[in-house]
Write a structure and sequence with these properties.
Elements lengths: L11 E2 L4 E2 L4 E2 L4 E2 L4 E2 L4 E2 L4 E2 L4 E2 L4 E2 L4 E2 L4 E2 L4 E2 L4 E2 L4 E2 L26 E2 L4 E2 L4 E2 L4 E2 L4 E2 L4 E2 L7 E4 L4 E5 L8 E4 L2 E3 L6 E5 L2 E4 L1
Parallel strand pairs: 1-4, 2-5, 3-6, 4-7, 5-8, 6-9, 7-10, 8-11, 9-12, 10-13, 11-14, 12-15, 13-16, 14-17, 15-18, 16-19, 17-20, 19-21
Antiparallel strand pairs: 21-22, 23-24, 24-25, 25-26
Length: about 200
């Protein structure tokens, strides 16, 4: 298989990738084998799109986003800067999925309205997790591998299970935070402190 070569602006596209000419690809972004980037999708700078990943029409991703192998991001998803989507994770777009209408006719795009998943800055979605549209995953949150997210996830929340539930907090480094008392949480890696107020976490 032929290796990809970067273009003048540093974009690398593997020969077997399918990138629609109407898609916008930021400088330094790398798109690997068998990935598909659909029309009007927008990828920011220095993104990495893994083997077999799918980015739907009109999806918007910020800078430094990583989609691991076989991640499926359906339109009209919105991904902030620094988002991580793990291997085989899925961001859905149909609240009431059916292949056919009640009369048995095969559905077309005109028969339903796509709804998107929104992922905040720095958040991470673990391997084989599913985010069921139209949920929002907050900034720097962490969705564990295999979780099924059916409700919005707060900033910095650590959620696990089916359906996903919060079991703790994580900091920017992704490590579970340690309670210091009086609503203060500390990152064991960086020492950064976070404050919990009424079920929400904030930096500082």
């Amino acid at each position: 298989m032929t290796e990809a070569s970067p273009t003048r602006d540093g974009v690398t596209v593997a020969p077997s990738a399918d990138v629609d000419p109407r898609a916008e690809i930021g400088a330094g972004t790398r798109i690997w084998h068998l990935a598909q980037i659909r029309e009007d999708a927008s990828l920011g700078r220095n993104c990495t799109i893994g083997r077999g990943a799918y980015v739907g029409p009109g999806v918007v991703a910020g800078d430094n986003v990583k989609l691991q192998n076989h991640a499926l991001v359906y339109e009209p998803a919105r991904l902030g800067d620094g988002v991580f989507i793990g291997p085989a994770a899925v961001l859905t777009n149909d609240e009431y999925p059916r292949a056919v209408t009640p009369e048995g006719r095969l559905k077309s795009g005109a028969d339903w309205t796509a709804v998107g998943v929104t992922i905040g800055e720095g958040a991470a979605i673990g391997a084989r997790a599913v985010c069921v549209a139209p949920v929002t995953v907050g900034s720097w949150a962490l969705v564990a591998a295999g979780a099924v997210v059916t409700k919005d996830v707060a900033d910095f929340a650590l959620v696990v299970g089916v359906p996903a539930r919060r079991i703790g907090w994580v900091g920017r480094a992704g490590r579970p935070l340690v309670a210091k008392g009086d609503g203060t949480w500390v990152c064991p890696e960086t020492g950064a402190e976070y404050t919990e107020t009424e079920g929400r976490l904030a930096e500082g």
